[in-house]
User: What shape does this take?
Amino acid sequence: MKTKGEIEAEIAEAMVKFEMDYMGRGPKEARTHIVEDMVLVRLKGVLTPAEQQLTKSADGVQLIKRMRATLMENARPILFKVIGDITGAKVTGLHTDISTVAGERMIVFVLDRDLEKVVPRKRVS
Assistant: This one.
């Protein structure tokens, strides 16, 4: 059985791969935290150079948010499978937002069970 830290690291790695494959560019940093029945993913440095230019106007910011929301919605089945395969839990929800000021995205996956109750924190020697 994988530890909580191993699962978090595997999810972070999978999210970087997803961003590279699906969005065309990976984040500069990815961190994942399991909190009860949620998986929180924070991706820093996700804006492309073109998106950084668009952040200079209100219309550009809205365009980025709409485009990224649409891409995430279309990728929902892929992400549910990836997170489900790694955690062994069923994903029941996905919530996300992107900050065009900080250049980061937050993703929250809601699971059908509390992973902290079933996954060991550290490997037992």
About this structure: The first strand starts at residue 29 and ends at 35. The mean pLDDT is 93. The two ends are 13 Å apart (CA to CA).
